[in-house]
Amino acid sequence: MPSMLQVLASKGSQVWSISPDATVFAGLTLMADKNIGALLILENDRPVGIMSERDYARKIILEGRSSRDTKVRSIMTTRLVSVHPSDSVEHAMALMTREHIRHLPVMDGDSVLGLVSFGDLVKAMINQQQFTIEQLERYIAT
């Protein structure tokens, strides 16, 4: 099973982030521009939370608040669950399932190496399974 480091090597390690003092609207605009579902929230270059589409739906739309007037700080998820670069895809998927989250920062100590989504992990598993199938087919054919 691939590690988080291998997943990042495949998908890239670009992490899009925003300040907790930015407006939710600015965060949504960035997510739309980058076609992503979550942003890491950094304060003084340290991760302090994450804002996802789910946070927006539940804490802005359903509460009738304005994304233009609301700061990211007031809706971000502050309990930051992360994985280590050596953790396996299987471990990360189990963690996401248990915690009911769709995005995980990959961290080595205080350093953010990347951000993975559940979709990234599914893709990594499919690629690994395809590789295994190809190897078995070659083995059987010889």
Which structural category fits the helices and strands?
alpha+beta
The number of helical elements comes to: 5
Distance between the termini: 25 Å
User: What do the pLDDT scores average to?
Assistant: 94
Helix content: 40-55%
Order of helices and strands: HEHEEHHEEH
Please indicate the percent range of residues in DSSP E strands (runs of 2 or more). 15-25%
Total strands: 5
Shape: elongated
User: What low-confidence regions span 5 or more consecutive residues with pLDDT below 50?
Assistant: none
Largest sheet: 3 strands, mixed
Instruction: Specify the oligomeric state.
Output: single chain
Rg is 17 Å
Strand order of the largest sheet: 1-2-3
Describe the protein.
The protein is α+β, with helices and mostly antiparallel strands. It has 5 helices and 5 strands; from the N terminus they run αβαββααββα. The strands form 2 sheets. The protein has a 3-stranded mixed β-sheet. Helix 2 (24-34) links the parallel strand 1 and strand 2 (38-43). The radius of gyration is 17 Å and the shape is elongated.
In short:
By secondary structure, the chain is α+β, with helices and mostly antiparallel strands. 44% of the residues lie in helices and 20% in strands.
SSE diagram, text form:
Blueprint: H1 4-11, E1 17-18, H2 24-34, E2 38-43, E3 46-52, H3 53-61, H4 89-99, E4 103-108, E5 111-117, H5 118-141
Parallel strand pairs: 1-2
Antiparallel strand pairs: 2-3, 4-5
Summarize this structure as a short list of keywords or feature phrases.
142 residues, 5 helices, two-stranded antiparallel sheet, single chain
